[in-house]
Amino acid sequence: MSESQRIATLLANVFDDADGSMTPPIVQTSLFSFDSYQAFEDRMAGRTNQPIYTRVQNPTVAAFESLMAKAERGEAAVALASGIAAISSTLLAFVRPGSKIACVEHVYPDTYKFMERILRPFGVEISYHTAAAFEDDENLLDGVDLAFLESPSSVVFTPLNLPRVTELAKRHGALTMIDNSWASPVFQRPLTLGVDIVIHSASKYISGHSDTVAGVVVSSLDHIARIRDLTLPLLGAKLAPFEAFLLTRGLRTLSARMMQHQATANLFVDRLATVPQVRKINSPGANEVPGLTGRSGLMSIEFDNTVDIPKFSDALQYFRLGVSWGGFESLILPARVGLAQAGAQNSMQKFGVSPNLVRLNLGLEDAEDLWADFVQALSQSAA
Ligand SMILES: *Cc1c(COP(=O)(O)O)cnc(C)c1O
């Protein structure tokens, strides 16, 4: 595999070892048996590497992991049952009581809850900082063990200058992890920008079809081995073979889908700039920060007070109301729904979000149809 191979080509590569089959077989088994006592003992002693048990190893899952590792330019990958399982299993493999985490503001809401409800009670110290502080404050990572990043962040989509942040992290000896779900490896490959560990909610663009919940972590052999040794087997949030099959299938069209999401998002950003009721557009595009090469279809906008957001949401025909994103279908998620969510660890309340903000997930429908829908719904939504 050549280093210079472009990502669309890489993702379309056929597996070499599948008897001419274009797709990996779904190996739907819990365990693998051994031909002899000696083979069994050799495997347990680590002298061979044949699969033993699907909680830790499965060929269908391995096929997905191998394609993901190539896509992110990492040495290895480990797939897990969900994006949040990938985040929690990675964090728990690298922290201990007394560890200090610096986390970016407007991090994914359940990542924030994991920090506050699980890590903090176990004695991990967590502080939250703006993207600007990560880039400009040379001492921010002094004494910090681990920087948890998202670029762009959730909700307000603030991008980070990753080469700058990772240079500072290396100076202070802090391990860097990033949630790269928004950009996907098509638009951003953080390992090439100095980040140590890349995490995805594969439920989003990697699946692309709103039919799978999954996560994946890509990094060096050593870091992935640590997760495989500790939290994959001992927390047990493994990915099912059938879901791994769906994700490999999703990766085949990831590049083409991202190009379509980008074309629609560019059209929206251009036209939203001329809509008087839109006060702010949160949608980083190609080259807005070093290493970001495209605009995905997930953005947010802030309306002025003349728009009745519930009325606007109900008037939309192609945009459905719902959480998640990254599938074929367009969605709207008004911030006031998130702000209304019960519970003390509400990240939207913590970091502050305008009740006039709405998140748009632009799907694979025709861009002109989506724009016409947006315009007709807005015309019916005067407060
Ligand atoms: C959805 C999401 C997650 C969580 O992923 P699940 O697969 O739902 O567990 C993590 N990070 C971001 C940015 C997300 O949007």
Structural features, described:
It is a single chain. The protein has 383 residues and is of the alpha/beta class. The chain folds into two domains: 7-252, Aspartate Aminotransferase, domain 2 (3-Layer(aba) Sandwich), CATH 3.40.640; 254-379, Aspartate Aminotransferase, domain 1, CATH 3.90.1150.10. It contains 16 helices and twelve strands. The strands form two sheets. The protein has a seven-stranded mixed β-sheet, with helices on both faces. The chain has a five-stranded mixed β-sheet with strand order 8-9-12-11-10. Strand 5 (175-179), helix 8 and strand 6 form a beta-alpha-beta unit. Helix 4 packs parallel to helix 5 (109-119) and helix 13 (309-315) packs across helix 16 (367-379). The longest helix has 19 residues, at 254-272. The chain starts with 6 loop residues before the first helix and ends with a helix. The model has no long low-confidence stretch (mean pLDDT 96). The structure holds pyridoxal-5'-phosphate.
